[in-house]
Write a structure and sequence with these properties.
Elements: E1 7-14, E2 17-24, E3 27-33, H1 37-49, E4 54-58, H2 64-73, E5 78-81, H3 98-107, H4 122-151, H5 167-181, H6 204-236
Length: 238
């Protein structure tokens, strides 16, 4: 049987949680998310980062419509399916999660999309698109700081099992670095993991450059938070 989509995602809602299964290059990755707006946006960020071709999800959950609107507003291709029609399809391995089964069927083009009546308002598209641009800027800033640290032979343990940079781990590492180099914690008391970095191996000039980038990163985070609050208000009223 021919593979139609080289990388795709199946999504299920289970006991107030969301499970997303991403299939790519004969590999499978399953992530769990909460169902609040921030978590749904983070899921969207991940699927954009991994260049997901198409997503299939069930819309019977209370949160299905919200997720569909966010994914669609993010520019991702999403189809709605009836998960009950695929539970007993032949070929399913026992104990396979619904999200994984959905992704496998989607990969081979074996899912039939239901007609969607969900309308995504333009103002939500505008907000999500603006946030997407801020997240892209944030990623560039994170990579810039990472390159400066690595160039000074500082080990930055932020790679995942597939050799990709894990942005959340990288950001946490960078904040720990900043808070050991400064008396002011821009995050205002957020939990620090205390990674030990000997700042003496960096020149004052390099520390200044890194700190300036980190301040910029902080400012981007503020803008992202404002946009997320606005998205929450818009989603609440539609």
């Amino acid at each position: 049987m021919n593979i139609i989509y080289n990388n795709c995602c199946g999504i299920e809602f289970n006991k107030g949680k969301l499970l997303a299964c991403f299939i790519y290059d004969n590999s499978v990755e399953i992530r769990e998310y909460n169902t609040n707006i921030k978590s749904l946006l983070e899921l969207s960020d991940w699927l954009i980062q991994v260049k997901c071709q198409i997503i299939a999800m069930d819309n019977h959950s209370l949160f299905g419509e919200k997720l569909y609107k966010i994914l669609e507003a993010s520019g991702l291709i999403v189809i709605i399916i009836n998960v009950y029609t695929i539970k007993n399809m032949p070929g399913r391995i026992v104990k396979t999660k619904d999200c994984e089964w959905i992704a496998e069927l989607l990969q081979y083009g074996l899912l039939q999309a239901s007609e969607s009546t969900i309308v995504v308002q333009q103002k939500l598209r505008d907000l999500v698109d603006y946030r997407k641009s801020l997240v892209a800027n944030k990623k560039q800033e994170l990579l810039k700081i990472w390159k400066m640290l690595v160039s000074e032979n500082i080990k930055v343990p932020v790679m995942d099992g597939n050799g990709m940079i894990h942005n959340n781990k990288l950001e946490n590492f960078i904040w720990d670095f900043y808070n050991q180099s400064n008396t002011t914690d821009l995050r205002r008391g957020e939990n620090k993991k205390g990674i030990k970095i000997i700042n003496d191996i960096l020149s004052d000039h390099k520390i200044w450059l890194i700190n300036e980038s980190i301040v910029h990163l902080y400012e981007i985070n503020i803008h992202i938070k404002k946009i997320e609050n606005k998205i929450y208000l818009v989603m609440k009223n539609i």
